[in-house]
Structure prediction request, 291 residues.
Amino acid sequence: MNNENCDDPGDDQDAWRRLAHAFDLRFGELPVLPPDLADADALAAIVSRRVHRAYSNRPVSAALVRLLCATALCAPSKSDLQQRDIIVVTDAGIRRRIADLLPHMPWVREAPAFVVFCANGARLPQVSALRDKPFPNDHLDLFFNAVGDAAIALSTCLVALESVGLGGCPISEIRNHAAAIDEMLALPERVIPFAGLCIGWPAADGQISPRLPLSLTIHENRYAAPPDLRGVLDGYDRRRESLQPFERQYQPERWGTAAEYGWSEQKARQYAVAQRVEFGAYVRRKSFNLT
Prediction:
């Protein structure tokens, strides 16, 4: 790791070291850390965040879950439209039925708390009708904005829960069963489940997941495709394999067992199988206009 751009800020040395270490694990490189960086500790917490799927038996109080949800809803919202809602699943029967749909994710059943983030495209047309105004914006952007709002709120909730010592695991796979979960949660027209979130006190430290190189994902002024995508991915695969190898290869019965198995092979295999092919039809049945 190259620290030549990391000036010693004095009293905040430990936070700077943790920030630099986390960046190195994430990307295998260290972005320039400005000497006037105000709060390295806050950034270090974000860069060091990790998914937690194993939880202690310590309960998470209803008051704390509600506080975290309220904090999540303080997140930015497109044009202040606030097109997101959170459903706290406290009913044991509903929780069990959701978990039964995801048997390969036991943490959905075991987490002390579970919430579902929803994209809400219903409220804005209702507001327009209440104020006797037309609503000519019933098109793809209504859906897109609502999904964006839900995603930002989910991300904010993860930061909030980790700030108080909790751990979380987003569950996007609830969209594999969108219609069933829709019925369980009694979602109205134009309100759809975006993702679940397991919440609990971590039973283990978890692991920082290495991310794609910054040279591939940060662009200046114009998008710049890499001249050698395979080479970049091969390097990332090797680095990730050294830090966070996959426990098993995906569908070896179909694709065989690869001598070198990294992120790109895993994701290529994963998406060689059709995913959520019914989701678009479900969204349209919920009265979203996707044109």
